[in-house]
Amino acid sequence: MKALVNAPENVVAEALEGMALAYPELLHVETEPRFLRRSDAPRRGKVALVSGGGSGHEPLHGGFVGSGMLDAACPGEVFTSPTPDQILAAAQAVNGGAGVLLIVKNYTGDVLNFQLAAELLAAADIPTETVLVDDDVAVTDSLYTAGRRGVGATVLIEKICGAAAEAGKSLADVARIGREVNAAARSMGLALTPCTNPQAGQPSFQLGEQEIEFGIGIHGEPGRSRIPLAKADTLTEMLLTPILADLPFRSGDTVLLFVDGLGATPLLELYIVYRAATRIAEQHGLRISRRLVGSYMTSLDMAGVAITLLRMQEDWLGYWDAPVRTPALSWGATPC
Amino acid sequence: MKALVNAPENVVAEALEGMALAYPELLHVETEPRFLRRSDAPRRGKVALVSGGGSGHEPLHGGFVGSGMLDAACPGEVFTSPTPDQILAAAQAVNGGAGVLLIVKNYTGDVLNFQLAAELLAAADIPTETVLVDDDVAVTDSLYTAGRRGVGATVLIEKICGAAAEAGKSLADVARIGREVNAAARSMGLALTPCTNPQAGQPSFQLGEQEIEFGIGIHGEPGRSRIPLAKADTLTEMLLTPILADLPFRSGDTVLLFVDGLGATPLLELYIVYRAATRIAEQHGLRISRRLVGSYMTSLDMAGVAITLLRMQEDWLGYWDAPVRTPALSWGATPC
């Protein structure tokens, strides 16, 4: 395995030190237990957003800590859930008196540990709500999941709920919005190459020279099938067809289209997929009102792409457009 | 070769169509001849910034078109210089009457074609200045270059000159600033894997399982040597030592530290390198006042990292911090 690391066991700790050094104005990294928080947290009277999960999906989640998105993120080791004490400490550190929203991707370890943390928070009289993300249409019941896996919708929920919290919405309202976004989002991805966990040293699976994993999970868990590599337009249609059918998305729907690189995918390829996806969405009668193209939720060095489609509600547009300043997603109040 | 493409000959054209669809508010893509321009260009009275080069380095340059950076970018085919007619048409389209600054990386084809375009612009009575970027300390006279290659400093010049132009500086001043930034910047990179040009279908070179190319060029051209893979801290020191010695950077200097992923490098690894680089810089007595960490100038799917160090001048800090809204670099006026 080739990677720019020192000791495999220190990958996450050293990367977090690097993040703290790279973004001194935006975030602080705590080490005992480990979490990242907004440098200006807690924000009095604002609902605090806390997410987390295994590392290896950067910039998710730590790259979304900052004004307009997360108040804290709890990174586990690579592809390993964070522990309840991390989540508890993060939530206590950023709680501004208006309660804490936990945003949890549907993987068994994450669900269990966030649930334990929520019970500890309740015992500490900190009001807590949880949004469980399960937007992946590829498979039901997977290697690490009962039900559907949580993937790209997580980024959209963190942005939209982050803006709603910033706008002063109550914990109940922010949680409701998060659940509504999750319910209106569907995703699916495919891998051209496996990823290699530097703490394991081996590729997560093997693929033939002209083979792809269709419906891939973000830890390299199996998808729906192994299929031959095909043209980008064909593969994009194969991803979008089950996404469109699942919600289902209907002609006339207004959508946000998110094309996500899985880590090693050149931007040239993401734009080719985005082009194909817009055509298919428009043939389906959808109006694309917002979009996101880039590598925002990755699987280390995996080459591949995932597509998320979100049926937008009118009041989410303002939340999407609202200012945000995090390492990975940043824009000002208006185009300057 | 595995890539998300349709036909190799259409990679750039289709990716540009995708970009136009992804950023309708920020930019327009012209096809005959091919260039990207700010959607609100020309800006009356503002110096216009035009850059370009071979495709395959995304987000450079098209991803830096927008307010606060480039007015136009001219993409060639993959790893192929844009033609003079592209550059001429782009400059004419975005010239707002205050002249045009051409930002050119030092590769023979780029230099020649931008020079021809500058002559055509002079004949059309459009005042033009050129900033030639040649910050790579790895080698002198390379596969496509006489003198030093232009690499990471390009991103910094486009940001700093973009802000200076936005602030109303004259063409002579913006060009002077660009040359000063180039003169104060030094870079070097290394590759863990080759890249594969989808229009060629073959890896650009071969590397052993535990071998890296030290001093790599952004088209896969040879660097200084093939060396065994080592720890991230060791490799970071090997990159920084010649960078520090070259300018030379001196104890007490204030610097911008830019750690650039070459395309397929996980963010976890970039943060580990950033951590190492800050330590070495500080041991050298440098004060890091600004930083940039991410994949901003890439070589398709190459795994590896490049480091750029810029000795900052006081008046560049405000230009660096100034608002920017482009696909790849974006922030508002103040942390929100």
Can you give a write-up of this model?
With 336 residues, chain A is an alpha/beta fold. The first copy, chain A, has two domains: 11-183, 3-Layer(aba) Sandwich (Rossmann fold), CATH 3.40.50.10440; 185-312, Hypothetical Protein Tm841, Chain: A,domain 3. Chain A is 32% helix and 26% strand. The first copy, chain A, has helices spanning 11-22, 84-94, 108-123, 153-166, 171-183, 232-246, 267-283, 314-321, and strands spanning 27-31, 34-38, 48-55, 72-78, 100-105, 128-133, 140-142, 145-148, 185-191, 211-214, 225-228, 254-261, 287-294, 304-311, 324-325, 330-331. In chain A, helix 4 (153-166) runs antiparallel to helix 5 (171-183). The first copy, chain A, is globular. In chain A, 64% of the residues are buried. The model of chain A has no long low-confidence stretch (mean pLDDT 96). At the A-B interface, helix 1, helix 6, helix 7, strand 15 and strand 16 of A face helix 1, helix 6, helix 7, strand 15 and strand 16 of B.
Relevant CATH superfamily of the largest domain in chain A: Dihydroxyacetone kinase, domain 1
State the helix count of chain A.
8
Q: Give the chain pair forming the largest contact, with residue counts.
A: A-B, 67 and 67 residues
Q: Quote the distance from N terminus to C terminus of chain A.
A: 44 Å
Low-confidence stretches of chain A: none
- Which structural class is indicated by helix and strand composition of chain A? alpha/beta
Task: Please summarize the sheet with the most strands of chain A.
Answer: 6 strands, mixed
Question: Strands across the major sheet of chain A, in which order?
Answer: 1-2-4-3-5-6
Number of strands of chain A: 16
